[in-house]
């Protein structure tokens, strides 16, 4: 999901620069990692992932006129704060809250707020019903950009599948 936040912010193309570092677990999977991504003329993203600590799972998108905070858990947030710059260090704050969909009876989730992923399922169902080959909200180009970024990340860290 971290990489998707970056491509949603900078567009459905892989960045020109992808620099990654991190460490592997004994099993060969990435234990923790840092991705530094730069889209020339657009901006940069710094992404951190880890299996070793409990991180806030919050995303902050810093823009030229303020920032957007997507609160934990960012993969299915119920709270987004938009801070618009009024002056140096002075921001007007606007908060947006979202309800999660109700889980179908008899279903449960493992991770907090994962019932919010039902929106993805509904989008796929709509695309299938409409005979679409890709989802307008998440195009093939964006999926390929994410795959390229993740491939570069695994290569630079030394992750090899199957582990």
In a few lines, what is going on in this structure?
The protein has helices at residues 2-10, 118-129, 140-157, and strands at residues 17-24, 30-39, 43-50, 59-63, 66-70, 79-87, 90-97. With 163 residues, the protein is of the alpha+beta class.
Order of helices and strands: HEEEEEEEHH
Segments where pLDDT lies below 50 for 5+ residues? none
Residue share in helix: 10-25%
Oligomer description:
single chain
Query: In which order are the strands of the major sheet placed?
Result: 4-5-6-7
How would a crystallographer describe the biggest sheet? Answer: 4 strands, antiparallel
Query: What is the terminal separation in angstroms?
Result: 22 Å
Radius of gyration: 18 Å
Shape: globular
* Structural classification: alpha+beta
The number of helical runs is: 3
Q: Count every beta strand, where a strand is a DSSP E run of 2 or more residues.
A: 7
- Overall pLDDT level: 94
What is the beta-strand fraction?
A: 25-35%
């Amino acid at each position: 999901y971290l990489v998707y936040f970056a491509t949603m912010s900078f567009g459905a193309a892989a960045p020109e620069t992808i620099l990654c570092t991190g460490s592997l677990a004994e099993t060969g999977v990435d234990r923790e990692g840092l991705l530094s991504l730069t889209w020339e003329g657009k901006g940069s993203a710094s992404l951190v992932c880890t299996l070793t600590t409990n991180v806030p799972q919050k995303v902050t998108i810093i823009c030229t006129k303020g920032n957007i905070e997507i609160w934990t858990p960012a993969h299915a947030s119920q709270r987004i704060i938009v801070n618009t710059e009024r002056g140096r260090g002075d921001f007007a704050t606007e908060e947006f809250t979202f309800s999660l969909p109700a889980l179908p009876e008899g279903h449960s989730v493992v991770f907090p707020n994962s019932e919010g992923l039902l929106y993805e399922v509904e989008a796929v169902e709509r695309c299938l019903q409409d005979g679409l080959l890709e989802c307008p909200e998440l195009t093939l180009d964006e999926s390929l950009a994410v795959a390229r970024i993740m491939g570069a990340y695994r290569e630079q860290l030394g992750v090899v599948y199957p582990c």
